[in-house]
Amino acid sequence: MVDETFLAVPPEVVVSAFAEPSSWARYWPDLILDVYLDRGIQGLRWTVAGALVGTMEVWLEPVLDGTLLHYFLRADLRGEASPKRVRQEVRRRQLAAKEVSLGLKLTLEAGRAPGVPPALP
């Protein structure tokens, strides 16, 4: 699964939303994450356990006056899963990823009028 969202704030601001492991549990409550690569302001890569097994990445790419938040989830459901269950899970994860990124957008861009450059940290 892949998702991308533009946030009109610098990567240094966005990375702070993922800095604390407690935030991971809020964003992905059914996943157990273990960092295998901390890329600083470029993001994090995790191994995934719990409801899914695989890897996940948040990549923060500086673009124009903000950050393109890339989210990659490469994981399988535990055990046997019917094609229907896989499709349902993919859709659920897509909606959850967009909820996280749009929630960050609302929070991190709060008070910024459209068309106005982001405040620097």
TrEMBL record:
Q: What is this protein called?
A: Polyketide cyclase/dehydrase/lipid transport protein
Please give the organism.
Answer: Saccharothrix variisporea
